[in-house]
Amino acid sequence: MTDVTLATAADADALSRFAEAAFVQTFGHIYDPADLASFLADWNPPEKLRAQIADPAMVVALVRGADEAILGYIKLGPIDFDLPEGQPAEGATELHQLYVAAEAKGTGVAAALMQWGIDWARQKASILYLSVFTENPRAQAFYRRYGFVDVGRNAFRVGNHIDEDRIWRLDL
Q1: In whole angstroms, what is the distance from residue 103 CA to residue 132 CA?
Q2: What's the sign of the alpha-carbon dihedral 31, 168, 50, 67?
Q3: Alpha-carbon torsion 171, 140, 38, 61, what sign?
Q4: The dihedral of CA 62, 63, 65, 71: what is its sign?
Q5: How many helices (H) and strands (E) in the chain?
Q6: What's residue 8's pLDDT?
Q7: Spatial distance between the Cα atoms of 73 and 58, rounded to a whole number of angstroms
Q8: How far is it, in rounded angstroms, from Cα 9 to Cα 26?
Q9: Mean pLDDT, range 38-66, rounded to an integer
């Protein structure tokens, strides 16, 4: 069984490093180095993570390995992107991030985090949204397995680069 635990303020530095490394490993090759650096500077710095961990409207949860290293995390909370026309914001929350270390992919870490996140969201909302990069078929297949459906476009900015992301919805 994979244990999912709530992050604490003491986790912010390690979580910031983990988030940046996971993003760069997954997507870093796509971007101009200046765009990537600009994005990462404000994406998940420790002080921002500490504030999010302390915010009762948000939640950050982790899975750790035997050595206590972070193997994955999930972050959920209020919606921070524009929803497509016709998509309700009332009674909705967002899965902001779900990242898993390369060595933990395929081990059940992502599934444990996702189930934990869905369970958390069900206590707060009736709809769970997320945004996923159009060029990330592995993530899309993962979300489809949980019943998420594509409901529209989301422009995701990394520095001066704008990606085509899709907004996906799960009715809870």
Answers
A1: 21
A2: negative
A3: positive
A4: negative
A5: 5, 7
A6: 98
A7: 13
A8: 26
A9: 96
